[in-house]
Amino acid sequence: MPMFKKWVLSNDAPVLTSKGHHDLSEKDFELLEEHTSDVCKGEILCRALFLSVDPITRLYLSYGIGPGETVPGRQVARVVESRNKKFPKGKLIYGSMGWQTYSVVHPDAVQDICGKPVQLIEDLPKQLDGTTQYHQASTVPNAVQLPKSACLGVLGTTGLTAHIALTKIAKAQPGETLVISSAAGQIGHLVGQIGKILGLHVIGYTGDGEKASWIKLELGFDWAFNYKTQDPDQTLKIAAPKGVDIFVDSVGGKMHQTVLGHMNFCGRVIQLGNLSMYNNPKQIPESIPSNDLEIALKALTIVGFNLYRYSEHFESTLDELSEWCRSGKLQAHEHDIEGFESMPKALIEQLQGKYQGKIIIQA
Amino acid sequence: MPMFKKWVLSNDAPVLTSKGHHDLSEKDFELLEEHTSDVCKGEILCRALFLSVDPITRLYLSYGIGPGETVPGRQVARVVESRNKKFPKGKLIYGSMGWQTYSVVHPDAVQDICGKPVQLIEDLPKQLDGTTQYHQASTVPNAVQLPKSACLGVLGTTGLTAHIALTKIAKAQPGETLVISSAAGQIGHLVGQIGKILGLHVIGYTGDGEKASWIKLELGFDWAFNYKTQDPDQTLKIAAPKGVDIFVDSVGGKMHQTVLGHMNFCGRVIQLGNLSMYNNPKQIPESIPSNDLEIALKALTIVGFNLYRYSEHFESTLDELSEWCRSGKLQAHEHDIEGFESMPKALIEQLQGKYQGKIIIQA
């Protein structure tokens, strides 16, 4: 029985005791080392290779789990011991085993955050196993094999979310104007590129000038701006002279209200999340002006996004995303960080907006 | 050429000059008396019989029209002179001629607020023409001929709105829980009754105890409460123990946020309007806490309602509404007020929540 490491929510985590606004800190986490349990009939022992870092985890820390519980999250892992014929030793799997280096799981029984059991990944080349040869901030090269970590990103929930939000919910039409918040983020940078593929006029905003340059110059957005330094209202007047038809928002807050003021009649807003409130999910950080009047007057539709309501579209969507990646139309940006120990810091910095694209931890 | 009266937006209307929060007052209106213009080829002269008073008019006063312009609104009128074969003298029509006693209009050209031309009403009994025999606060009796003013209410936009909001947008399913704001209002009192016909658990709130009793005892809502005297959050916990699936809201504001907190996963919110902001449409009256987090977490859908996006359903919906009214399943409550001169006062009092059901002015 090998030793393994896991990150748990600390017993005296400030996020649990703080009443007001509270930024996540490393004090909220505790690293434990334990022996794995016995592998019983039907179970497997797997070793984490790639772990996903996601802003939504911030919410689970306040809403989803209690002190001492393993931080939830998705990972790509290799089966190292098996008492389940469907998941033999050596196979790669994808599932929500949480923030731990080894896991003993029953593949059919283990439900991840989204209620899906563990899945097999059949085609990861052996030589990538546990590799440290990834480049920092590597952009997936054109016309090459995608890394298997892609199933945590562009060929996983972030890619599916970006594609389905635009095509199945917003029903984007060529020539329409799209605005994206957190536009250099793991989902935003894909939404904008897919928007361009679909023939939209794409405007992205971020809280960082360098990221704004990146999405404009490297990813081909039509407009990009730093909402902290440029007046958002004035900028949108110039960037979206015909108004905004689709708004894909992961952030909420005051900027959300500003964009609503620019929406066209029958505009669609896809609310993927609400990053601006994640550090204070139990209490509302500050009152923000309500633009509800816009919703009724302009007959807007606002859809809170839940990917698993659209599972019938997953297969065809993954086919298209994969094709776009391989042909170079879509650049899935992956920021790789080495070391399981880095996970809390990576999440904290992701919430602070320090990274571009998808954050992957290599265990 | 007869003399006619019209209500216009006053040249020095406080609603136009006030910067902050501003309640509509009679000073915002001016009553003018003029001669009607000549009836040219294709035109008709018509006399108003029933005029509709609608909260949305408050918005048009700030957004839609300028000083000296006639207040917009719908009416049922009789053709008294005609140079249009399709609209002969004596016929009854429905259209947006505005707040005036006589109008010269080209039936095909005149576009009302919703972009519809004037329509014929073929079957109004002659003896109802200009009648003053309506009862104050009459509830349409069961199994009888509906008054022709009904095309301004239950067989017009308010009935269509109530029915389509529940059936076509919310796609209400039996057993679901429905919450309605302004539940004794012209749309709300219909939404609740249609909810009961569809097998929903119906909860309505108003700002008045008497109205709450009325919708509970007379109209058959399952729950009704006065949000000014009962704690809304606690009340909803008891009234909606399984959570809220559908919220039909005409009011917005803080109560809107409170109800969002009780919504179930995949809940639907139909935003018909935003009464709480109508007296201050240009400036936001006060910051209200945002529950946007609920939207993403619960995968809510919020739809700003615009009736004319659903015109393909009008005919079948009117058939069903008419049948429900005649069979007594649906009580369309009409509050009739005599005298064209009463219109501004009626609108002001409607916005203050003084009335139940549909307000009709008998000119």
Structural notes for this entry:
2 copies of one chain form a homodimer. The first copy, chain A, has 2 domains: 3-141 and 332-362, Quinone Oxidoreductase, Chain A, domain 1 (Alpha-Beta Complex); 157-309, 3-Layer(aba) Sandwich (Rossmann fold). Chain A has helices at 14-17, 57-64, 157-169, 188-197, 209-218, 232-239, 253-260, 292-297, 314-327, 343-351, and strands spanning 3-9, 29-35, 44-53, 75-82, 92-95, 102-105, 119-121, 177-180, 201-206, 223-226, 244-249, 263-271, 301-304, 334-338, 358-362. Chain A contains 10 helices and 15 strands. In chain A, helix 4 links the parallel strand 8 (177-180) and strand 9 (201-206). With 363 residues, chain A is of the alpha/beta class. In chain A, strands 3, 4, 5, 6, 7, 14 and 15 form a 7-stranded mixed beta sheet that branches. Chains A and B meet through strand 12, helix 8 and strand 13 of A and strand 12, helix 8 and strand 13 of B. Strand 13 (301-304) of chain A pairs antiparallel with strand 13 (301-304) of chain B, so a sheet runs across the interface.
